[in-house]
Design a protein that fits this description.
The structure holds two protein chains of two kinds. By secondary structure, chain A is mainly alpha-helical. Helices cover 61% and strands 4% of the residues of chain A. Chain A has helices spanning 7-25, 41-55; one strand at residues 2-3. Helices cover 54% and strands 4% of the residues of chain B. By secondary structure, chain B is mainly α. The chains are: A mainly alpha, B mainly alpha.
């Protein structure tokens, strides 16, 4: 079945969002709730500074 | 049979209409979104500001997958968010091949822009669709060399998966192009080198990073041939004019003969360039 080339971007955006929604249903979007899985280096640095301050 | 005025006008319109502006619009949107995610993380605002740009990279999901399965923890700088983006990208790949590379990846957008800039800086006055200009860069890499260089990204993918099993940080963390460009934070010389190399390589040859180095591209390439939506060429109508070869951002040699190439990013540049709208078409199955 032929697809119009202007329908293609609509399809890919819709599919991308649909799979993101599926990911959300499986609880794979922790960032939206403000929770973190891993830590950025900046956060690690901040934790070190805080710990250093507490130790001092 | 004579055509009515309306039919003529519709036929002319369908021949001339280009999907390129739509693609550019989507590319710019995702590029700005990625910059916004990077900026959001460096701005003050406490822990609620969310993860670094690393957490939004689909390849982070590949890097941290093994460790997550075996220990229940993600590698440093990655999170469950990486899995969600990976799921979305791979889902899209199964439906439409490497459309993510052609339409959404911010690195792809930057490479396209840098290639256009290189064309302008090295001799091209005005780009005529389908016509090879007299510009010096970006160059076309010889087919034989291209064929061998293509394997590098698969080697990188396998190496990353192996190294990720014994790693604390993602194996590519120290040399990640996404981190170098979108984190607004270049703490090491290596990241500066990566940024400069990315810019220069993108101007040297079209999408050089995508074609030879991107491990995410390698993963998606595996699924490119089994995607539901594919491009098809009507060989009876194709006159081998090679105009589509000129416009292909992945520099796929003889596009009309290699329309099912694993390197195709479904950008539809070939569909746009072809003079006959019925020669190269998008089809399901």
């Amino acid at each position: 079945m032929k697809i119009d080339k202007f329908a293609f971007p609509v399809i890919i955006i819709a599919v991308f969002i649909a799979f993101l929604v599926i990911a959300m249903m499986f609880g794979l979007l922790p960032m939206l709730g403000g929770k973190h899985g891993g830590h950025s280096e900046l956060q690690l640095f901040e934790s070190c500074v805080t710990l250093q301050g507490q130790l001092a | 049979m004579t055509m009515t005025t309306t039919e003529k006008s519709t036929s002319k319109k369908s021949k001339n209409e280009s999907v390129l502006p739509v693609r550019r619009g989507i590319q710019i949107f995702f590029l700005l979104l990625t910059f916004a995610i990077g900026l959001r993380h460096i701005m003050p605002g406490g822990p609620s500001r969310g993860g670094a740009i690393d957490s939004f990279c689909p390849f982070g999901g590949v890097e941290t997958l093994f460790v997550y399965i075996t220990t229940g923890q993600t590698l440093q700088t990655t999170s469950l968010m990486n899995f969600s983006v990976l799921l979305a990208v791979m889902g899209l790949t199964l439906v439409a091949g490497r459309a993510f590379c052609g339409w959404m990846c911010p690195l792809g957008t930057l490479q396209d822009a840098l290639a256009r800039l290189a064309r302008r800086l090295t001799g091209e006055q005005k780009h005529v669709l389908g016509k090879r200009g007299k510009h010096l860069f970006p160059i076309t890499i010889p087919v034989q060399v291209d064929r061998w260089l293509n394997y590098i990204k698969y080697i990188i993918l396998i190496a990353v998966v192996i190294f990720s099993m014994q790693s604390v940080y993602p194996p590519l963390h120290d040399m990640c192009v996404v981190r170098a460009i979108f984190s607004f934070h270049l703490p090491t010389t290596l990241l500066w080198v990566v940024t400069v190399a990315f810019v220069l390589s993108s101007m040297f040859a079209k999408r050089l990073f995508c074609r030879y180095l991107c491990p995410m591209g390698a993963l998606m390439a595996v699924f490119n041939k089994i995607s539901i939506i594919r491009l098809k060429v009507n060989q009876e109508k194709c006159n081998q004019c090679s105009r589509c070869d000129v416009e292909c951002p992945m520099d796929i040699p003889a596009v009309s003969q290699n329309i099912r190439s694993v390197e195709c990013v479904r950008c539809l540049a070939c569909v746009d360039t072809c003079a006959d709208p019925e020669t190269i078409t998008l089809r399901i199955g």
